[in-house]
Amino acid sequence: MPSQNAALSARTCDIFELLSRSNPDILTIAHRGLWSAAPENSLAAIRAAAEIGVEFVEIDTQSTADGHLVVIHDKTLDRTTTAQGIVGASSFAAIRDARLRVGSGGTAAAASDERVPTLEEALEEARGRIFVNIDTKFPDQLPMVIAAVRRLGAEDHVIIKSDVQPQSGSFPVLNEDWFGSIPHMPMFRVRPQKFADDLRMIEPLRAPMIEVKFADIADLAAGREELDRQNIRLWINTLDVSHNLEFNDSRALKDPDGVWGALIAAGVGAIQTDTNVEFKQWLASRGAK
Predict the structure, then answer these.
(1) CA 35 → CA 32, 44, 58, 102, 127, distances in Å?
(2) CB burial class (10 A; 0-12, 13-18, 19+) of residue 192?
(3) 34, 61, 184, 189: which could form a disulfide with 48 (CB 3.0–4.6 Å)?
(4) Domains of the chain in sequence order
(5) Residue 225's pLDDT band (cuts 50, 70, 90)
(6) CB within 8 Å of 84: residues ≥ 6 apart
(7) Whole-angstrom Cα distance, residue 230 to residue 245?
């Protein structure tokens, strides 16, 4: 069960208050929703994540051929739905006729009653329940995503992420008309022994949270002072496909202290996982000790 503080945070507090390093809670991000309980990227998966006290849900969006933003990860419909074909070459009507496959999909997975949601439907489902991290699968469609967020007045419960190169000294996102009104999360790979330097370079972005990949967990710990100074929460993926050394969900299920515990000890304040139930249970047991 989630802690009372964490459960309340996702429902009642300002997103910047939640992300602030002054908030002691470790945040959970449900990758594509709680797909162990419902089809990935479905409205049911968003609801299920909120019901167990997850603070953020990560969803993927891209446009159909006729300009509708739908919530689906793959370029094609094949894995997660009963239909086939390229999402961007398919009509919204054709995609809506398909049903989502249970769990993470695959041809052997049964069809559910869930349909591919629109981005607007997903944001409305999350409103007042859980914060949303939007992964725009094609960067040129980001203006459509921003327009949808603004149309729904959802600026206060989403965070938009994009890749940056800290050492470049150039951050085009600063020139976007939405920057500053919608929370933004930079993503980059930590350079060995230069994490603090990279953090100082991205200070103009005023990031409330960053997502990074790393090759040495000691680099994360070395950036703690700079993270504190800029009040940046550190997000790490422990998904098996994240390639952050052996800090992954499969190992965490056997050795949670050695994976999730080690990351938290290094200064991580948000973890995206495919094993949300187990992670929440571990957090609860850790807090009870």
Answers:
(1) 7, 9, 11, 8, 19
(2) exposed
(3) 34
(4) 4-59+126-288 (3.20.20.190)
(5) very high
(6) 76, 77, 78
(7) 27
- In angstroms, how far apart are the furthest CA atoms of the chain? 54
Rounded to whole angstroms, how far apart are CA atoms 158 and 134? 7
Q: Global pTM?
A: 0.93
Candidate list 68, 73, 157, 184, residue with the active-site label: 73
116-175 per-position pLDDT tens digit:
999 999 999 999 999 999 999 999 999 999 999 999 999 999 999 999 999 998 999 999
Nearest to 172 by CA among 198, 124, 200, 140: 140
* 31 part of the active site: yes
For 204-232, give one letter per residue: b (16+ CB within 10 A) or e: ebebbbbbbebeebebbebbbebbeebeb
Q: Which two tokens stand for residue 44?
A: 């049911």
Distance (Å, whole) CA 82 – CA 106: 10
* Entry field: residues in the chain: 289
pLDDT digits (tens, 9 = 90+) for 171-210: 999 999 999 999 999 999 999 999 999 999 999 999 999 9
- If you compute the radius of gyration of the chain from its CA atoms, what whole number of angstroms results? 18
Question: Cα separation of 284 and 272, whole Å?
Answer: 17
Q: pLDDT tens digits for 59-103?
A: 999 999 999 999 999 999 999 999 999 999 999 999 999 999 999
d(CA 130, CA 150): 18
